[in-house]
C-alpha cells in the first residue's frame, strides 16, 4: 500500500501540478500587461472635453448601434472632431458673414481661397441683399474703412460722388485730405443728415450730443449768441483760459508802459533820447488799446496794430541804448536805483512789444485759422510750430479766433 501511494506522487504524478502553476503565472502576467495597456496619463481639460465630445452619440442616431455597425461606430467615436472654422456648415458661415463689418470681411477673404470665394462681391450681394449691402458700405469710410454704424463721425455723401455707396469719409481722413468742407465758418452735413458748424478751436464738427458753448443764436441754432461756435468741453475752456491770460497780460503791459513813461518824465527829462521816445510810446499805447476795444468781430485791423506795435518797439530802442551807453562809458560812476529801474522797465517794454509784433504777424498770416495743429497726421515739428503760433495769438489778441471770415 505504501509503495502504491508513493508511486502516485512521484515524478509522473507531478506533471499536472506544474502545469497548473504555469497556467496561473501566465494568467497573472496577462492581467498585468492588460493593466499597463489600460493605464493612461492624466488628461488636461482640453483633451477631456475633446474626448467627451467625440464619444457623444449623434442626436438622430440610435443609442446602441447594431452589431454589424459596432466596429465602424466604435472607430468613429475615437476620432477627434475638427476644431477649425472650415468645419462649420456653409449656412453657419453665411450667418457669421452677416454680422461682420466690411473691414472684417476683407480681412477674412485674405485668409484662404475658400473664404475668398465665399465672401466674393457677387456672393455678398446675394447674401446681404442690395439695400443692406448699400447701408453697410455707407457706414464705412472710403479711405481708412473704419466702421461707424451711426455715421455720426462720417461726412455725408450723395449718389453723384465717386465710388458711391462707398463714398463716405470720416472726419480724421477729411482733415488729413484738407477737405474744404471742414473749414471754420462753414457748415457741414454729417452722415446723420445733421448740418453742424465747425469748432473754431479744434476745427472739428460740433455734433449735437457734444453741445456748444454759450447761449444759442436765434439766427444760427446751436451756436453762441454772436454766431461763433466752440465745443462745450475742452475747446471752450481752453479759449476762456487764453482770454484770461490775455487780460492779465494786457494790464501788465499797460502798467509797464505807464511806469516807463513816468520814470523818463521824472529822471530823464533832460535826455532827449529817453524822454521823447518814451512819451511817444505812451501815446501810441493808448491808440493800440483803442483798437483792441473798438474794432469788434468784423473789423480786422491787424495791419494797423502791427504798424503801431513796430512804432512802439522802435521808440523803446533809443532809451535802452542811451542808458546802456551811460553805464558802459562811465564805469567809475555808481549805478543808482533809478537808472537800474529805468533800464529794467525799458527793456521789458522792448521785449513785450517784440512779442506783440510777432503775434500780429501770425494773426495777419493765419487769418486766424490755427486748427491744422489738431490734424491727425501733424508731425512733431508741425505741432510745435502751431503751438508756438497759438501762444503768439494768445499773447497778442486771442479774440481774433472769433472774427468772422470772408466765407461767412
UniProtKB/TrEMBL annotation:
Spans through the membrane: 243-265, 271-294, 306-323, 343-365
Keyword Nucleotide-binding tagged: no
Keyword annotations of the record: Membrane, Transmembrane, Transmembrane helix
InterPro entries linked: F-box-like_dom_sf (IPR036047), F-box_dom (IPR001810)
Lineage top rank: taxon: Eukaryota
UniProt-listed SMART domains: FBOX
Signal sequence, renumbered to the chain: none
A Pfam family of this chain: F-box
Residues annotated as domain F-box: 82-131
UniProt KW Transmembrane keyword: yes
Chain segments carrying region Disordered: 31-50, 55-81
Protein name: F-box domain-containing protein
